[in-house]
Task: structure prediction
Amino acid sequence: MRIGNFRAYLIVAVFSLVYGTLRFSSTLQAAHILDRRSRVDLATLHLQGEFLESNLGAVRAADGSVTIHMIAEKYIFAPACVTLPAAVPIQLRITSADSAHGFKIAGVEVKTLPGSVTEVHLRFPAAGKYEFYCDEFCGPGHHAMMGRIVAVPENEFQAHNSGRGVACGQP
Amino acid sequence: MDSLKPTIGIRGVVLLCIAVVIFSELLGLPILRRAIRPAPPPSNLVATAGAPSLVAWNEATIVLSSTGNPVRGEFISRRCESCHGVEGFSSQASTPNLAGIDAQYLWKELQDFRSAKRRSVIMQQIAGALTSRDAADVAAYFAMLPNAPDAQFNPIFPQTLKDQSAIETAQRLLAVGDPARGIPPCQACHGPLGYVRPAPSLASQNSDYVLRQLNDFTSGARTNDVNLPMRTIAAELLPNERQALAEFYGADLARFPVGYVTQ
Result:
């Protein structure tokens, strides 16, 4: 069997485009999950490391950068309410304590998996309240899995601030 | 003369495809190499407050806590009877009923009492005298008991409902929760719809005990819920909602939270 040159090149071009794209993107995703820097021990999440209870919430480093540490679990986000400075680049590090969860806020949408940290860069342009919620079905309480980010003017933000409950402790 | 023109045969196509596969795999190598690089040194964040619980759910603790010996546990349970009652139903409404409660939850609470992560003067002494294996055995015994109310052994359960309007409030919170406030339905973790380790089943639980726990989670007197689930939810509940939930559970109405016939 013989194939014309043009048809042969077409077959090879289509194959390489499809295969190359799939393979490259899946490698990227696998790299994120396999990356040791993004791996955490699920069993000792509350005993050591960056997801200790006292580290949850927003914290501002000495160089002025703000990092949020958050745990998604059935069926809440911990902490459910975070106070942040507005108009400042923010790094969110989120992990899951049990199953796959989502984190969706105003156009940004990421997934979290148990045992691995997902890192997102956010920026809240103006002061105000922003709601986020889980967009990956996780069980019978999924519909109520949400939280709130309260962006405040930069000068009102304290160094380490995370509220109790979804309303940041306010009635 | 066409036959003299060089053409790629089917063999050529296959060979080129293989070349593409090899090229793509090589392209991914630098990414995967980054994945097996050693982890960076631990972050400089300092653990200021203690952990909520010292129990880590790894293979050893899961196996230990779920394979207790209930026969041996029954002997150990003799020292629980004076407060938690024969057959796991207490005679005081402020003491929890233990009949039919998940063994892993009971085991974790005993460990937390022992390490003073859950504060109780009496329970700290009693749990402190038990080894991990003892705790697993006694937890297996209580988990095995039927949690159906039996008038012979549980004179105070179910309790009478003080306020009929509590039913509607509690049914809504149990079955739907309040999504606008981030309150998931209670029954998604505490049953009967679903269970999440180590959330306890709340069917046949005393109302005074449920109310006190909800208030303690709100005030921060009880902090051994790992990753803050109950402290977050209880802080969102209004005082009358906590009261309604406690009465609903105490009246044994939680077995069928939706469509239960109210008398």
